[in-house]
Design brief:
two-stranded antiparallel sheet, 18% helix, alpha+beta
């Protein structure tokens, strides 16, 4: 798909390594003003701090955060900022991690219905001690994972709110360009473990 500009949208990528495999979570944020260098830096720092203070609590120490990259999506060659203050920020959830491809899907919801107004992300690691059964996570771990997602919404709210960007409607590009839906809630639809095969060591990037 050819690049489609999304004015005032910042793509932010939390890039990490899990057991030697490159992994990431990617989010979109809606800046209330024209995106500039300061705004990119503010978003990158906020996401790094969220990862360190909230998200790390549901990730095992096998996951090392390398950098947070914020990119202006207003134009194809939009400005970019990389934040990488240290090389020691790891997950803090105790115990051994489950295999890289085991994950948990956190749904991101807005005030609007329909698939175009929803998003999701897959946790970068699930700990063995977070399981509540063979194929499920415990209620405690599930609640902590949702709380981490909600903390991301809060962290970005006063800077550039977490947003769902919809480029397509009814399988065709939106004629007026992408539309935006600000995220207001993180939800766990079920506590069943999910799979992200591209995170398996030696597969994908």
């Amino acid at each position: 798909m050819a690049f489609v500009p999304a004015p005032n949208i910042i793509m932010v990528e939390a890039r990490a390594v899990s057991d030697g495999q490159k992994v990431e979570n990617r989010f979109m944020c809606h800046s209330p003003t024209t995106v500039d260098a300061d705004k990119l830096q503010d978003v990158a720092v906020a996401v790094w701090d969220w990862w360190e203070l909230s998200y790390a609590g549901v990730l095992c120490s096998s996951v090392l955060l390398n950098e947070v990259v914020a990119t202006d999506m207003s134009e194809q060659n939009g400005e970019q900022f990389t934040y990488a203050p240290d090389t020691t920020t790891v997950g803090t959830f105790g115990g051994a991690p489950l295999p890289n491809e085991v994950s948990l899907c956190i749904s991101l919801r807005t005030a609007f219905r329909g698939r175009s107004a929803r998003g999701r992300y897959y946790q970068l690691c699930v700990g063995e001690e977070g399981r509540g059964g063979t194929n499920i996570v415990s209620t405690t771990y599930a609640a902590a994972s949702v709380a981490a997602g909600q903390a991301l919404i809060t962290a970005l709210l006063g800077i550039a709110p977490l947003t769902i960007v919809s480029y397509v409607s009814n399988k065709i590009p939106r004629p007026g360009g992408p539309v935006y839906f600000d995220v207001d809630q993180a939800v766990l639809v079920d506590n069943v473990l999910d799979s992200m095969r591209s995170r398996k060591p030696g597969v994908g990037t």
